[in-house]
Structures are given as C-alpha cells and as structure tokens.
Hints:
Elements: E1 18-20, E2 36-41, E3 44-51, E4 58-64, H1 72-78, E5 83-87, H2 105-118, E6 124-130, H3 132-140, E7 147-155, H4 163-172, H5 175-184, H6 186-191, H7 203-211, H8 215-227, H9 232-243, E8 251-256, H10 264-271, E9 276-280, H11 287-290, H12 292-306
Parallel strand pairs: 4-5, 4-6, 6-7, 7-8, 8-9
Antiparallel strand pairs: 1-2, 2-3, 3-5
Helix pairs in contact: 1-12, 2-3, 3-9, 5-8
Amino acid sequence: MAKPxxxxxxxRGARSHVKPLIxxxxxxESVWPFQTFGIGVDDTMIAFTDVGDHDCPALLFVHTxxxxxxxxxxxxxxATDFRCIALDAPxxxxxxxxxxxxxxxxxxxxxxxxxxxxxxxxxxxLVVHDLGGPAGLAGAARTPERVRxxxxxxxxxxxxxxxxxxxxxxxxxxxxxxxFDVMTGFIPRLTATNFGVGRxxxxxxxxxxxxxxxxxxxxxxxxxxxxxxxxxxxxARISSALAGPFAKLPLxxxxxxxxxxxxxQPRWKQIFPNARQLVVAKGNHFPMCDDPDLxxxxxxxxxxxxxxx
Length: 309
C-alpha cells in the first residue's frame, strides 16, 4: 500500500518540509478525495496532490492558470498504475497568494522544479496542459536527466508567434479583461460548463472547481496569460531542452477535436516526428475532462510501450 507523502523520508531528508494542508470548507472530500500537501519553494507554499503507490512510475501533471482540479478524473483512473502528482501554480488553487509582480511563468517553472527536487522524483513523465506546457518544460529542463517522457494535452512549448496567438494572449491578459473577470467571474463560469471542464462534472464538482477561482486566482490567471508573451529566457531554455536532452524522449500529444485553432498538434509533430498523437472526438480545450477514460487509457498504453523505466 502506498504511504502518504508526509510519512515518507527522502534520501537526504527532502520531505521534511512537506506538510499536509487543512482541507478548506469549499473542498468536500466527496468531490476531491485526495489529501493536499504543501511544499516550500522560494519562500512560498506550493500546494500539490500526491496519489498512488510511490513505487510506481511518476506522472507529474502541470497546468498553469486554473488549478489542479482539472486533473481529478484522469488521476483517479491512473492512480492504480502510477504515482500521480499535480500542483497548483503559484497564486492559484490552494497555493499561497503571490504579489502581482511574481505571477510569471518563470515562477511557475521554478515551482515545478522545486517539486521535482523536493520530492526527489526520478524517471518521471511530464503531463502538461495549456500554459503548463512552457512552465512544465522549463521547470523540468533544470533536471532533464529525471524526465523519461512528455504528454502534451492542448499545450504548446515555444515562444508565441503570429498575430492571432499573441493577440489572444494580449487580450486575455489585459487589465480591462482581467478586472471584468474579477467583477463577473465569467471565465470560471464558462470554464465550468460542458465547453470547459464540466462535461462530466456534477453540480457539486462544478461549484468546487469555481470556488478556488476567487478574485486573487482570477487575477493570477490573466497575469499568467499576459506574461506568456514576454518571457524570452524561459522560451530559450525550453528550445535548448527540446533540441538537446528532451529531443529523444517519447511524446504523446492529446488535443480536443474542436480546439486546436493555432495548429499546436502539427507543430509538435514537426519537433517530434515519432510522436504518437490522439484527437479526442468532440473534445474542447480540456480533453482529459471531456473523455477521461480515453485519455487515461491512452497515457497508460503509450507509457507501457514507449517510456523507459
């Protein structure tokens, strides 16, 4: 039986700064059956969930902008065969609030690296979504020898280019849109619907997903989008990793049929010609929520066939 993270001791005592977090009132166990832990990274607390047997291969789930509730259903299906770790980026979910100037993809990447090193993860597979692509890849690039595979789910891993891509980031990352969302909550409301994460969510799950996206969380979401246009050093580090230590890694891409307007999946195929690619029928931006059984089975099968242990 797997031991809870707080009962384990790292080879060098790395886990001594891992603490179980008190479950907030808005996070009922009935919809989030996992214990959440906190780990210190750069003087802030990063919340993470660690589910499954620690002797199994590790999957590190990285998303930046919303929070790790988006991974719930796929983690539930994979935890029998994998150790599944998902974190809330700085300033989001159950992680500590951050000053506006600290809501950057670089700090999200540092949180990813801090978790990898703090939990002494080895032989891990990155599972990244959306802005978790650049944050996860840049964070893992600091310890590339620990990574054995990459799963990109509606994610990118390069500097945004082109008027459509950069214009979308500029609009959604702008102050007026940010503050309008703070006042109205239109992004959490839209994201909780069938169009977003909610296709298989019941009312309690949708309410819980939205509960974590308060004023600070919504501001963080938009600030991450704004920062994605300008973090050149982070994209340079990713580019070096993709051309260097990550170049030979197996890659699985999973995209929703209805949500790849910028051609991210073909771009991944150009970088990784041997990539396995899956399109989720009628899927949108969160294919792991649209069809968690299909996505979990695809990751399980691909990992067994292509990822070195």
